[in-house]
Amino acid sequence: MVTEPIAGMPRDLPTLRDPDRLTYYKEEVGGLVMGGYEANPIPWAVEGIPKDFHYTLLPSNFDHFEPLMELALGRVPALETAGIKTLTNGPESFTPDGNFILGEAPEQAGLFVGAGFNAYGIAAGGGAGMALAEWVARGEPPFDLWPVDIRRFGRPHFDTDWVRTRTVEAYGKHYTMAWPHEEHDSGRPCRKSPLYEVLKGKGACFGEKLGWERPNWFAPRGMEAKDIYSFGRQNWFEAVGEEHRAGREAAVLFDQSSFAKFTLKGPDAEAALNWIAANNVAKPVGALTYTQMLNDKGGIECDLTTVRVARDEYYIVTGTGFATHDFDWISRNIPAGMNAQLVDVTSAYAVLSLMGPKARDILQAVTRTDVSNAAFPFGTAQTIGIAGCPVRALRVTYVGELGWELHLPTEYATTVYAALHAAGAAQGLRDAGYRAIESMRLEKGYRAWGSDIGPDHTPLEAGLGWALKKGADFKGREAIEKQRQSGVMKRLAGFTTAPDVVLLGRETIYRNGERVGWLTSGGYGYTVERSIGYGYVRANGPMDTAYVLSGKYELEVASKRVPCTVHMAPLYDPKMARIKA
Fold it and tell me: Would the pTM count as exceeding 0.85?
């Protein structure tokens, strides 16, 4: 809405935004422009944009605008008597997650997209234009653009109806409170594990990622399986603590069927993957390799696990939200002329992760395969039988405990799940969700792509130099070798602070009173009974572990500085009697 001139209106009035009232204001020729973001937006052009529509406005809708006007009057009473010059109603492009879209379309090389700016195209235009221009010119983004990367989308986003449903919710949240751990509600459920109904009946409170329903936590009997948002400890805090403790003391079962899974097959599969992967995957059949994939600057583009399942075939497992990104990265970087085909097999396999000190006892009770440490060592994979199901068992962990990821054909999921619970009942086996995974991985110091590591971080900076192969070339090696010679100017470190301090990530890190970085992730460790964060400590020159450990550190949390302890080693080790706090 644009008003007539208002008496006494200063021409240099600053722009005002009032998210509590969903409105914004700016001076306009002695009057005001007032607009807002209503909670009940109206989708437009449901059957497609009319062919003759070119920067055209829509009919004014005073009835729909009235709730915003009422909210505005509480902030700017002068609007009650101001004359209305125009009520402008035009379409705006929003996306399902409220972030704009940049990058090269994974389906079509050479087609770059810059769209969906969610009403802040003018504010973001300069930076977005620069970033996209450099991406076009150099073939890669100038820095980490993952929050707006077109490859953050996936299968649900091919359906216009689903996109529209989710986008209406994203628009309605444009000016609302952004809560920690907030989930979207629309377009759900979309993609479901075969265990969805079983876990829902057992109190699972689901989150959603790339359309997948994933159990975040399980509500105890008598408690509603629903998140109640706040900036303090949320209602699931104690329930997740029980799941965490079960994982450390007995065993837990995670449904991780949403993992993205690919096969790379062909006579050149080994040569192709060993070029793209920074770690050595040229290992015998049955070998499992944790590896990063690097860009030419040495930055981490992918963080995943590979299993050699045949002489000419690899099975690749990566995070749910990275399905499109990682598939695109691998397929684009298979060297020209090499015969290797990448196929997405995500939907073909369910994944049950059995973790905890009693995991071996439970697994041995349901299979004839010897799962002792000698027969089934860490970092290997075997096909075993459970309740008539051929299971690809991966001896690996993201929570710091003995355990296996059990990858199995989707149709067997409920049968294997029931068999594991029957065998584990006496061992204290319980279901657990992704928030327990996060808590346990923070204690162990495992990195998360998209927060702790990404295209702007090298393995040397992230403490992952041990995962770089020696004596063989790989994409990004030249940059890594240069950095080995020059030294790193930032290092990932862990921080612990008092248990009543809520860490979420992005908190500022102070070293000896000077700002040196920010937390990339934060949470709580129920075993160490401390709040935990990770972040990069930066310096003006080359640095080492001793430099990081020599400082006195504080974190700025909600505008207050709190003392913290820095760590360069895992906080938790299941073989140790004491926990490092």
Answer: yes
